[in-house]
Amino acid sequence: MDRIRLLGLTIDRVNMDEALKFIDGMVARKKPGHVVTADASMIVIAREDPELASIVERADLVTADGAGLLWASRLFGQPIRDRVSGVDLVARICERSAEGGPSAYFLGAAPGIAEEAAEALRSRYPGARIVGTRHGYFKASEEPQVVADIRAARPDVLFVAFGIPKQEKFIQRNRDAMGVPVSIGIGGSFDVHSGRVPRAPLWMQRAGLEWLFRLMQNPGKLSKVMLLPRFVALALRVKITGR
Length: 243
Hints:
This protein is of the alpha/beta class. The chain has 13 helices and 8 strands. The protein has one domain. Helix 2 packs across helix 13.
């Protein structure tokens, strides 16, 4: 695995096909594992959250999800060519599931959204094995039952849509009890796949402007978007001062 250190975190320089091949190996291994899709906001949050930083460092695979990381990797002379996003991983794994690949469980988002995303993806990929869904609005006292339900469903891949860092901490806290070979935090991906939130046009994705499109669609994401200037300032400071 080609790994680099980027602003304090380890990132794997993989494209989508390489990431999927690695995930196939995790499924075959059958031991609980964790895949992190890291973006600029995660870098900033991890600088102030040692628990999150530790979780990312212990993950089996950390992909670059966002134009900010690709820009920073070029700035430091270790270019990551391809973005491997949570929303694309959901689609590609469901596509492979329909062809006899891994089964999946959808956990997170508001009530009804995970189910709508599952229905849309089953329609798009007939035969996709989505073995369970559960919204993310449950009490802490209900977490053991949620974990038990996931374990009983025995998915190969668990997608968790709680947002950073809640989804990563949930996975780390429960990975052994759930027994899922691959758990992946995927942020707002179910909102996109359900059709509730449209995805940015392809030209905006390629130009690294998907964050702007999401802000235009949902001004409530302003607090997350405001982490981007902090990320840029951090990268430039480290580039200039070395710390």
